[in-house]
């Protein structure tokens, strides 16, 4: 292995659990502050998310009709101060639940010390992906991070926006029309990084989007099965406010049908088993 391309959400950390809990805490506080029913707020959030094509749109609450009805056409910097309680609830819950999976940090350290290039590839927008890796203390393990093109208005506090700007050479933006599971995305990364696909491995939690993409690209695939193990009720929260349109749902159904029987080269139950795979001490999925 010369390069490991890794998905981020639910591969390095449990995004579903931390974001669902944090988002729920925000909505609860926002409901109390505005005296507006939570279900109404969820409907409004969904509309904003579909507007941006992103369920995790930073500061979406600033654009909610219920917020605008309450505070009028207020400057974003002043408005975020009025919404300090909901924002604090989100940040407090995120700090509690945003954690690396076991052995992620030590494994990335071992790989980089062995000369393996670590590249991140995610459908999160740059601001969210970089912030998480920065807060988790592993952003320095990455040679490059490929993130999805996003429409982000910036932090209401300009100083915070400048502080959280990543080095330009670290980030590559993938156009929104190029989505998983397009195998050309991985092959483009190999070409950009100067590493042959034969010397590249890919790890991700989705059989349909991650593993099928790697297999189609001829890149060795590792399924992070542990990333699929979370409370189903937390997923239902995300579905409630999803940015997916009816067309997106239909596309996903078609992908599941198409790749129903896809099999990874390796299946792991913790990230650290990547080391065992490289060392040849871990049996492939087909051998089990």
Strand content: 5-15%
Query: What is the overall shape?
Result: globular
User: What's the arrangement of strands in the largest beta sheet?
Assistant: 4-3-2-1-5-6-7
How many structurally independent domains? 2
What is the rounded Rg?
Answer: 20 Å
Average pLDDT score:
92
Secondary-structure element series: EHHHHHHEHEHEHEHEHHEH
Number of helices: 13
In CATH terms, the superfamily of the largest domain is: HAD superfamily/HAD-like
CATH level 1 class label of the largest domain: Alpha Beta
* Largest sheet geometry: 7 strands, parallel
Account of the protein in words:
- It contains 13 helices and 7 strands.
- Strands 4-3-2-1-5-6-7 form a 7-stranded parallel β-sheet, sandwiched between helices.
- The relative contact order is 0.16.
- The protein is 48% helix and 12% strand.
- The chain is α/β, with parallel strands linked by helices and 288 residues long.
- The mean pLDDT is 92.
- It folds into 2 domains: 3-15 and 99-234 and 243-287, HAD superfamily/HAD-like (Rossmann fold, 3-Layer(aba) Sandwich); 18-97.
